[in-house]
Amino acid sequence: MPNSTDWLHSGPGLAPRVAWAFNTDAELSSLCQARETGDLFAVDLSGGMYRLNCQGRVQTLSRGLRNARLLKWSDTGEVGVAVCGTHEFCVLDGRMKVAWSSESPTEVLTAAIDPYGHNVVMGLDNCDNALLSIDRKKLGQFSTAKPLKFIEFCVDKKRICGAAEYGHLCIHRFDGSEVWSEKIWSTVGDLSITEGARAIYMAGFAHGVQCFDHRGNTRTSFVVEGTPSKVAASYFGERLVVSTVERHIYWLDADGALLWAAETPDDVASLVCDPLGEWLVVGFASGRILRLDWESGRSK
User: Domains of the chain by range and CATH?
Assistant: First the structure.
């Protein structure tokens, strides 16, 4: 991937500046953020796992997490979870070492950890979903009409929000009981929720970016040029970043108004939106990670 930043000016709106750039040793598998500390966590196809601070400097580097395809971290930055291969689920400590792992007889589709690092959840291919404490105690289990491909804990509420790849969106309590579920009529590429799940955003491919409220009612939908595949929202939903299959990226406000757009030089593997909506991080499939922000008031 070229180092040129000319692509930032390839579309309308005020282009951001590149605050910092980082390259993983191999293609990027997954990228996430600990919102309280601001640290970013990345894992690549070679098994390298990286903890980057707000300036993009490596704080911790770990090797050997082979076949990791999903990485999630608590907001406190103390505990994380990873899905490796098709059946392995790992809990990671603050040094990015495996605290414990489990082999599931059923394929693990997704996983999440709560913001405080107390509980974890796994979504399985057989439609079962298991909630565990960080010390492996089973807290609950629930089944859904379709297997959940995306799953998130709701901040400040003992709720779990999940979406199937197609046809199902839901929220469940920690004991497994259903709060609500809704049929959805699009294929889902990504899921992002705001504080208390007041807004639930889905990258709906051909249906654009769809937004639901905390009761499962459709709030709105944002139509962008192309096929949305990745989405990330700020904590209170003031800002939204969307990328498409056609290699376009969009920076939107809470009403869906376009603030900036560009054509990216590579496929976007992961997006992270600053909790306050002041900057974003783009993780490209090549392993290049960029923090883009507007704090200078103009782009470099």
Answer: 29-260 (2.120.10.30)
